[in-house]
Amino acid sequence: MTPAGRDLLALDRAHVWHPYGPMPGRNDPYLVQSAAGVRLRLADGRELVDGMSSWWAAVHGYRHPVLDAALTDQAGRMSHVMFGGLTHEPAIRLAATLVELTPPGLEHVFLCDSGSIGVEVAIKMALQAQRALGRPGRQKLATWRGGYHGDTFHPMSVCDPEGGMHALWTGVLPAQVFADPPPAAFEQAYADSLTDLIARHEGELAAVIVEPVVQGAGGMRFHDPEYLRVLREVTAEHGIFLIFDEIATGFGRTGRFFAADHAGVSPDIMCLGKALTGGYLTLAATLCTPEVAAAISAGEGGGLMHGPTFMGNPLACAVASASLGLLSDGRWAHRVRDIESSLRSGLEPLRGAQGVADVRVLGAIGVVQLDHPVDMARATAAAVAAGVWLRPFRDLIYTMPPYVTDDADMARITAGIAAAVAAS
């Protein structure tokens, strides 16, 4: 590490508050100097294969020439313009593309700043629409335990209320309606209990919100897509809106373009983010049906009561369209299948290893669950020593690599996971 690097880390320790940690931090973060392809180059000269896609967003890797060009071209035109009373081509093109790509019926797009805000907007949509439809008493949300929907207040209220990272806010957040976590395989008894719970709370529920097929930061659990069909049927029957949070699962991560595609159902509202811009800029989108939009627009507010300063940012919209263009040829599906195969062969030997409770793989997601909490510092250091960047949490050591990761780097990632498991 150079003296300049050490000085930067000292400034970081003195002033920069990192996510989910104390101030100052317990351990110095790794100082990244640059990134290209699937590699992070540290200030001390080491290179790490990124097994996290920068929190699941950089699906095309770093410094992709198509995305770089889209960003540079748009910066030469305009970096930002307010969206109130104005519009522009990057936002229009992106919205039209998202309507084409998402499940049928989602025709209207509200562009947001981040995933958490996208969920806030979805909740506002549901609450405003129910009120406009003459059902103002429907103010609660239902979900299942083990979920994660963001760090702002209403999204926190539908995260896991006990085991999640937001238990600190119990008693402050609105009390919502929770079902048990969905089993991995389909169980009719669970489906019946889910249907019964929603029916019993019909008069107070504005919406049901879930992460389809994969529960992300709440525990990296997978569940049978049939439960999504159950939810679609019961919510439609009782006039309750169905929200799919596809912020983590959208754009191919599970092996289908959207996780909802595994079930062949359409929600009333869908939240997108993370990989939307290929990890270049923060951007999210909340889509809804014409029925939801019409109810809100005819209601007392006269429109959706939300308007971020950086809504529809042209830079973010331009790079998002370029990212979706890279996915349009369908080659992502072959890459994700190859990654899935590498994860299965590379992680399966860990099943039954000391301290390992479970190993599970779906698409470009590989998870090793321990029977004890991860020693974060030791596990991370072991992965870094193996040339891999991972970010374990709770009892999980997992990877969501960029789709452009080749077989050799996938082998390095699974070896890094094995090293982290051994160190924990």
TrEMBL record:
CDD domains: OAT_like (cd00610). Its EC number is 2.6.1.62. One of its GO terms (cellular component) is cytoplasm. Pyridoxal 5'-phosphate binds at residues 115-116, 245, 308-309. This is Adenosylmethionine-8-amino-7-oxononanoate aminotransferase. NCBIfam families: bioA, PRK05964.1. The record marks 20 as: Participates in the substrate recognition with KAPA and in a stacking interaction with the adenine ring of SAM. The gene is bioA. The modification N6-(pyridoxal phosphate)lysine is found at residue 274. InterPro entries: Aminotrans_3, Aminotrans_3_PPA_site, BioA, PyrdxlP-dep_Trfase, PyrdxlP-dep_Trfase_major, PyrdxlP-dep_Trfase_small. It catalyses: (8S)-8-amino-7-oxononanoate + S-adenosyl-L-methionine = S-adenosyl-4-methylsulfanyl-2-oxobutanoate + (7R,8S)-7,8-diammoniononanoate. Catalyzes the transfer of the alpha-amino group from S-adenosyl-L-methionine (SAM) to 7-keto-8-aminopelargonic acid (KAPA) to form 7,8-diaminopelargonic acid (DAPA). It is the only aminotransferase known to utilize SAM as an amino donor. HAMAP family: BioA. Pathway: Cofactor biosynthesis; biotin biosynthesis; 7,8-diaminononanoate from 8-amino-7-oxononanoate (SAM route): step 1/1. It comes from Actinoplanes awajinensis subsp. mycoplanecinus. It comes from the Bacteria. GO terms for molecular function: adenosylmethionine-8-amino-7-oxononanoate transaminase activity; pyridoxal phosphate binding. It is found in: Cytoplasm.
